[in-house]
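sanity check both lines:
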Amino acid sequence: MGKHNYSAENTFVTWSRQKNWNPLKVISADGCYFTDATGKKYLDMSSQLMCSNLGHGNKKIIEAIKKQAEILPYIAPSFDTDIREEVSMKLRTILPDNLTKYFYGNAGTEANEAAIKIARMYMSDKKKNKIISFYNSYHGSTLGSLQLTGDFRRRLVDSYENASEFLRVAPQFCYHCPFNLKYPECNLACAENLEYTIKNEGNVAAVILEPVTGTNGVVVPPKEFLPRVREITRENDVLLIADEVMTGFCRTGEWFAVNHYNVKPDILTSAKGLTGAYAPLSLTAVDKKIADFFDDNIFAHGHTYEAHPLMLSAASAAIDEYKERNILKHVKEMAPLFSLKLNALKEKHPSVGDVRSIGLFGAVELNKNRDKKIPFSTADDKIAGKPLIVNSVAKYAMEHGVYLNTWISHLIVAPPLIITREELEDGFRVIDEALNISDKEVEK
């Protein structure tokens, strides 16, 4: 085959111009590393798309998939299976205890699409159908879930169909406060703005949010924010949907990020870490009151591969691995070092405007002017196809054996949750070196 890239010729790569896509060919992966076709190894400091929580090559998950393939690789979702019961019972032990019924799809996008429909069906008797989300969010790529999305990706394919049923409000982003206020003197203006919108808009069925914003900057909210949002939604008879596609399954140092804030959502969605990325599977979990509603009302949703036995087998084994390897304890033990390393980057490099983290979930935001909080690049720059400094930083890291996920003007640092202290230190050493590139570009 030589150097001809048949993948680039015949397949699409997501959220990118196709013309210059020349992908690296990966042939294997093990633990916190993956290996390319030349034999070069890379330390995976972003868990690929923040999903390979248990690392690569986990034998127990692989064997569970093989075993299920031999027993029952597929059956229509209207049938019961042992593995479906098994996973559901295991989830009951780790999810917030009010979430008692589950829908299994194939991806986080599908989980949020299901959440939209479930919220609207449940609220139909009250004639409520509007969904509020936050700017600076990402909730999926189908037309429904994309309408929830607050970042620029919605603009690229916005259909405007039923756009009035989807509303967005200012996010909980203290570093770039949309109200130009300082916490805690702000009195949670972002939450109060949400309540103002709910009261003045009318017919709001649900509010959806990422408890910790993911792709758009790993934004950790003030500890009072989520409890206040839960209070607002209850007082206004609005459902709260927690999108834990990225933050679920130990990533933040709790099974789910809502646990940090002692908040129980009405609907919780997740994917990624559910199987550790060994198979595509998503979860939409609902409160008992919503589950009871569908006893006498049609659940008007479904997929051919809903509750797919092979995918569920990966989830069952993954949950066992989280527990048996005591991943939560490991994340909590590693989190202080992780935070220390991130803050050291900010102290050393003038191009680092801010760092944020919770558990083993972090971001390094790059600024060309740190005092004025001016990023090197904007969403419009990405849409226009302009070179991004953050990509130059990540390219250096990759050349030196460390993979980092990037977005517009920040690095996402989210290694597999099994990472050792030595591996973490190796990864940060290369990130430290790579940031010399962005330092050279700061405004003098």
Observations:
- The domain at 60-324 is CATH 3.40.640.10 (Aspartate Aminotransferase; domain 2).
- The first strand starts at residue 26 and ends at 30.
- The CA atoms of residues 41 and 160 lie 45 Å apart.
- The longest helix spans residues 327-348.
